[in-house]
Amino acid sequence: MAAADFIAVVPARFGSSRLPGKPLLPIAGEPMVAHVWRRACESQAKRVVVATDDARIRDALAPYGAEVVMTRADHPSGTDRLAEVAEALALCDDALLVNVQGDEPLIPKALINQVALRLAEDAEASMATLAEPISDVETLFNPNVVKVVRSLEGRALYFSRAPIPWDREHFAARPDLLQTDAWLRHIGLYAYRAGFLYAYRDWRPASLEQLEQLEQLRALQHGHAIQVALACEVNPSGVDTAEDLARVRALMESS
């Protein structure tokens, strides 16, 4: 795979309604955010920055030599936090940033490289992200799983927590059966152009974003293109719940 020139940013917010202090929860003897930072460092990123609102996270990363940017605590989304990072680093409008979520300690480096390259290849897109096929109905109808519908050019048409697209003919009679491979699960890994981030931070949260609680809908509602590529590798689930944490700990501590 060719390489793109990009900076990886790991947003790590201390507050979490389900897992308070999530970035610092230990996995295999190290804080979760350290694992994510290391994964990002293994990618082709020319620079890796952790963006946090809490000195405890900064201090926990000091022994690793990680570059940390302190950000405000009141950002409504991770994208808004990255806009502050882009400004702090004085990045030019064409600079590419990849948002590597701080609760993804198993994220493959290949996906980080892929999303950056996909944006670099599409000069008209403001963002790029990834998706993977959905093969079971439980996942499709789960509101915690974000679905995406793409155009023929791979651009996002819409993201939703609802089961889109809706199979009008078959779901009424057989809602337990998927007839085609039309359904895609969104993977929350984003690449942005810095100039887009500078514009995004000045927009008020859009109505669709507020309804679905999906920050990428702010970009779509303002008419910006989002390129969506099919992930080149399987993306292991991140850590949202205590059950997720136990599963990831078991995997990483046994390897």
Automatic annotation (TrEMBL):
Pathway: Nucleotide-sugar biosynthesis; CMP-3-deoxy-D-manno-octulosonate biosynthesis; CMP-3-deoxy-D-manno-octulosonate from 3-deoxy-D-manno-octulosonate and CTP: step 1/1. Its EC number is 2.7.7.38. It is found in: Cytoplasm. It holds the Pfam family CTP_transf_3. Coiled coil: none annotated. This is 3-deoxy-manno-octulosonate cytidylyltransferase. CDD domains: CMP-KDO-Synthetase (cd02517). Belongs to the KdsB family. NCBIfam families: kdsB, PRK05450.1-3, PRK05450.1-5, PRK13368.1. It catalyses: 3-deoxy-alpha-D-manno-oct-2-ulosonate + CTP = CMP-3-deoxy-beta-D-manno-octulosonate + diphosphate. One of its GO terms (molecular function) is 3-deoxy-manno-octulosonate cytidylyltransferase activity. The keyword Transport does not apply.
